[in-house]
Amino acid sequence: MSSDELIRLKTEFRSRLISTIDALNSRQKQVYDLKINQQLKVLEPILNATHVFCFLSVNHEVDTHEFIDWLINQGKNVSIPKIIKGEMLAARFPGWQNLISGKFGIREPEQINIISSPVDVCITPGTGFSPCGGRLGLGQGYYDRWFLENMATFKIAPAYELQVVDDLPVENHDIPVDLIVTEKRILRP
Prior knowledge:
- The chain has 189 residues and is an alpha/beta fold.
- The protein contains five helices and eleven strands.
- It has helices at 3-22, 26-40, 44-47, 65-73, 142-149; strands at residues 51-54, 77-84, 87-92, 99-101, 107-109, 119-123, 128-129, 135-136, 152-158, 179-181, 186-187.
- The strands form three sheets. The chain has a seven-stranded mixed β-sheet.
- The longest helix has 20 residues, at 3-22.
């Protein structure tokens, strides 16, 4: 398959998966988010973690806001993405009131307080996942590049069951996740 064909296929998958997620009614999404977050909170890698790097959910993603509050209440060091000059960095979570709208309308810290300590767990977003850990993001490559330059002991993806597909188009540079947590199961590729 040519590079152009793979890019087209990935774009089609993203569009189809996002449309399927958007078709969930708000009550279904809330129930699924609750189940997924409950499962995240009992995972050994998260319970044992000192530093968790977690995305701030938007739109079609599993809601991570309550989970971030829980991490803070558990005494975890929490960092979130901050995009600077096209690079994603792990910035200390400053509290909800100290966030601004960043790239793509995703909230990020207003002040730059980059954390250089090792990350125990990275809570990783994605549009689609394969049972073997393959991950299809939004196509910008931020997380794949971040994984290449930063050590994260565990890469955990919260996702809706409908996001897990057998024939996900991935490339060699697409870095897989270690665990996928859905409302129905935990996949350990």
